[in-house]
Design a protein that fits this description.
mainly alpha, about 65% helix, Four Helix Bundle (Hemerythrin (Met), subunit A), 4 helices
Amino acid sequence: MSEPNFQDIPSYKTSSGEEFMSSNQLNHFKYKLSAWRQQLVTDAETTINHIQEDSTQVADINDRATLEEEFALELRTRDRERKLISKIDKTLHVIELGDYGYCKTCGAEINLLRLEARPTADECIDCKTIAEKKEV
């Protein structure tokens, strides 16, 4: 059975009185991150196969230019995803360390809705907002 699509994994529903980052929550995010990572790796493999299969000689120069532009776009996308895989791996490591779900800047709990939207988030929304304002 193949991994489910990352976006098809339902959001975590907390139980009444459940402690923040309980083992069930950690398992949920670990599963979600692993599925996302697997999806990205599969997409990269598909791109490699696509480029290998479609890079045969194309007689028309315009068709060749279009094909090369398509390949360049796919490779840029995969490069961004490669960086995301690295961030996912880092986040999975943080889960193993027991620090997942807490802001790396202030130590506060990161809202579960934020973690559902961006499972690799390592700052609470307040600290992230401040950091982004400093960047501008």
